[in-house]
Amino acid sequence: MQLEIDDYYLRSLDVEDADTFYSWSRDREVTLYSLSAYAYPQSKSDIEKWLLSINSSAKNVSFGICNKNNDQLIGYAGLSSISTLNRSGEYFILIGEKEYWGKGVGTSITKVVTDYAIRTLGLHRVQLTACSLNQAAIKAYCKAGYQHEGVMRQSGFRNGEFVDKVLMSVLSTEWAAM
To answer: Where is the N-acetyltransferase domain (predicted)?
Structure first.
């Protein structure tokens, strides 16, 4: 399956993407606000194993974000902790290629994946957490239709100190109204 928007498309991730993910994992600026998996050193072999298993869980959906002009993998996004009982999931995104930062890619991709979650997967609630220091991400999520729900105090640890995480979500009823 492939989803498209503007100058980008989303595709399945594959083991051939390991080199790109490995280079992102070695850049602390890229991984600073990402999930804890990047907090620990990973070998290319570890990343290959993860990519081989990534599409096998019904509780997760992951997409590679690619530039339409050159097919370059620039990041990945998707949903984790999908609950069919509660019709909910958690959104995530990482733009690994820094030259695409600040260009609206995060907002566009967030909209596409959220729409997929609600219209295709039938989820009612999609939530996310963002490090309170990552104001660019929070701004992108607001532009994409997510609402601020609260703050999870000192729930992250970055650069030697505890930081807050912002909890945001969108409901299918709100999404339909946008």
So the answer is: 8-169
Tell me the two tokens of residue 150: 């609260």
- Is residue 36 classed exposed, middle or buried when 0-12, 13-18 and 19+ CB atoms within 10 A define those classes? exposed
Give the pair of three-digit tokens for residue 157. 């640890």
**Which of 148, 152, 140, 151 is CA-nearest to residue 169?**
148
Contact partners, residue 2, CB within 8 Å, separation at least 6? 9, 10, 11
Q: What residue type is 66 in one-letter code?
A: C
The radius of gyration of the chain's CA atoms, rounded to the nearest angstrom, is 16
Note the helical H segments in 44-153.
44-53, 105-115, 135-143
The three-state secondary structure class of 168 is: strand
DSSP, collapsed to helix, strand or coil, labels residue 5 as strand
- Give the tens place of pLDDT for each residue, 5-27: 889 999 999 999 999 999 998 88
Rounded to 10 deg, the angle between the 135-143 and 105-115 helix axes is 50
Residues 168, 146: contact at Cβ < 8 Å? yes
Please give the domain boundaries of the chain with CATH numbers for all domains. 2-176 (3.40.630.30)
